[in-house]
């Protein structure tokens, strides 16, 4: 979740996830003052979780961790 998923290393990711987001990108956006509201920040946070849960099936570590931090 910390870095962007590399679609060249993860088959089908680019086709399945239309709005990728990761915590590293969120950190950069915070540091650069890109968020205009707490709601924008929260939307990106929830997008990380949603992407992880939709791409990774239940029972995988990625899905489980997404649920844990949700």
UniProtKB/TrEMBL annotation:
Keywords: Bromodomain. Gene3D superfamilies: Bromodomain-like (1.20.920.10). GO terms for biological process: chromatin organization. It comes from the Eukaryota. Residues 1-63 form the Bromo domain. CDD domains: Bromodomain. Transmembrane segments: none annotated. This is Bromo domain-containing protein.
């Amino acid at each position: 979740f910390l870095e962007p998923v590399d679609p060249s290393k993860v088959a089908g990711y680019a086709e399945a996830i239309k709005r990728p987001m990761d915590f590293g990108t969120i950190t950069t956006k915070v540091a650069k003052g890109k968020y205009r509201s707490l709601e924008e920040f929260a939307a990106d946070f929830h997008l990380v979780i949603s992407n992880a849960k939709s791409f990774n099936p239940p029972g995988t570590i990625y899905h489980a961790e997404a649920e844990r931090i949700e």
